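Input (structure):
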């Protein structure tokens, strides 16, 4: 099939490259000319494991190309996915100006039947608005359908998630749209849920909010574990083996970040509010997540006493491992609270340093590795569970540090081992 992805960010690029790998002809479009220039030269604008090779292979085999020319790409495609960003507005609602703009441009460009599919996470009714917008600017009265096909890709394992999904959700209002999308996804051999557009939109928001709720739940439990001397890792294991609960997304830590959970949670709360429902449960989920980051600062204070002029090393900047994405990364809330209290902050991340340097201008020293970060630090904070932090030479780390204090925000170490090594070690909700 001939496909366009409008918006070549984390979602559009991975989705486009994967569709190409399944044998389709794909054009990835972006209005950022520098990004398209980089992609044409096989320079990746993002770090995602396996993406560079996947793109290289599909470009070479002429199934994947890049352009800034939306009009031409629409004309050469039957299916057009909208994957532009939908950033939060000041009030927490999703900002849909780019979705509207792109819908209008598609309408003005199309000359034959098109299936326009929302891929970006959008509130309910966006499908209707996209349809209305296309109708308004569809001067040649071309036939078209609108569909919703939310993505469930996790950064860091996005290609694997695309190729082996738990389910594919398709929201349609015509049998033609249903047939095109089920044919497109057939090679993936995953269950396909075909439903109406509004239900598909809700499935995405409800899924992300539910996962965020699972994380906040276990973080709340970790707080209780801390207070009474239980171990949240054991508790999560004991809960997770119940198939009705499931063991995934029960890792307590410094909270969830990223471009999806925080944003989708507030957008869902807002959407419910507009529909007349006060989703207080989700408000609490967001509050618990905020508290988790403040907890780290409290733990540091408990160990270092006065913060001004103390040196704290932060290991990990991306919002999770295997990505360079720093959007809403908990590390940044912690760093800015520390800098605000006149702490000298040293940081290191295996891949997110270039993106972090563009944001963290003052009061932070960028280090070349974990050891340089530890040197003369009073405390080390593990903010992202990168594999390389799991295998450090702790005897060396201890020698390098001014005070051997570790706050393990991702529970990657065994508390007994760390105490034996002589560290003043604290995990999240661990004995
Ligand atoms: C996506 C989804 O769109 C978002 O709704 C979801 O919640 C998370 O994933 P993402 O791919 O992470 O967003 O965003 P980003 O990496 O910012 O990519 C969006 C791309 O769209 C950018 O490259 C931007 O240049 C491009 N864009 C934006 C256009 O091409 N045209 C526009 O009008 C606006
Ligand atoms: C998420 C959804 O999982 C995906 O389906 C959706 O399409 C996009 O949003 P992503 O944001 O890439 O994916 O990462 P995810 O693995 O879900 O992690 C999100 C955040 O939750 C990270 O900050 C992670 O550290 C945190 N997390 C996750 C926990 O704190 N504990 C857990 O047990 C799991």
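Output (sequence):
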């Amino acid at each position: 099939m001939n496909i366009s992805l409008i918006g070549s960010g984390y979602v559009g690029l991975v989705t486009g490259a994967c569709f190409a790998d399944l044998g389709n002809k794909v054009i990835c479009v972006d209005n950022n000319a520098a990004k398209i220039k980089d992609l044409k030269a096989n320079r990746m604008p993002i770090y995602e494991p396996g993406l560079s090779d996947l793109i290289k292979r599909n470009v070479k085999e002429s199934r994947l190309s890049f352009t800034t020319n939306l009009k031409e790409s629409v004309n050469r495609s039957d299916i057009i996915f909208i994957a532009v960003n939908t950033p939060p507005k000041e009030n927490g609602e999703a900002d849909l100006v780019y979705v509207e703009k792109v819908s209008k441009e598609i309408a003005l460009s199309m000359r034959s039947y098109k299936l326009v599919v929302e891929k970006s996470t959008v509130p309910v009714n966006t499908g209707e608005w996209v349809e209305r917008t296309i109708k308004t600017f569809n001067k040649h009265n071309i036939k078209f359908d609108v569909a919703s096909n939310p993505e469930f890709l996790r950064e860091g394992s996005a290609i694997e998630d695309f190729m082996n999904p738990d389910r594919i959700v398709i929201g349609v209002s015509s049998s033609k749209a249903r047939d095109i999308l089920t044919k497109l996804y057939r090679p993936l051999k995953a269950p396909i849920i075909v439903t109406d557009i509004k239900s598909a939109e809700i499935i995405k928001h409800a899924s992300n909010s539910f996962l965020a709720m699972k994380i906040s739940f276990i973080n709340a439990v970790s707080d209780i574990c801390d207070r009474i001397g239980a171990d949240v890792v054991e508790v999560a294991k004991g809960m997770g083996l119940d198939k009705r609960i499931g063991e995934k997304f029960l890792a307590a830590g410094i909270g969830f970040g990223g471009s999806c959970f925080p944003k989708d949670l507030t957008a869902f709360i807002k959407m419910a509010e507009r529909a007349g429902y006060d989703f207080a449960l989700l408000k609490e989920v967001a509050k618990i997540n905020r508290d988790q980051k403040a907890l780290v600062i409290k733990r540091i204070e408990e160990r270092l006493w006065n913060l001004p002029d103390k040196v704290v090393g932060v290991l990990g900047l991306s919002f999770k491992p295997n990505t360079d994405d720093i959007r809403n990364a908990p590390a940044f809330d912690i760093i800015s609270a520390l800098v605000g209290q006149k702490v000298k902050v040293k940081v290191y991340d295996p891949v997110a340093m270039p993106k972090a340097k563009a944001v963290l201008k003052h009061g932070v020293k960028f280090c070349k590795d974990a050891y340089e970060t530890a040197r003369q630090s009073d405390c080390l904070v593990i903010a992202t569970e990168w594999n390389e932090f799991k295998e450090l030479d702790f005897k060396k780390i201890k020698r390098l540090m001014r005070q051997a204090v570790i706050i393990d925000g991702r529970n990657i170490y065994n508390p007994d081992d760390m105490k034996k090594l002589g560290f003043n070690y604290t995990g999240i909700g661990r004995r």
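Notes: The mean pLDDT is 96. The pocket of uridine-5'-diphosphate-xylopyranose (ligand 2) is lined by residues 151-155, 208, 211, 215, 249-251, 253, 256-258, 260-261, 319-320 (CB under 6 Å).
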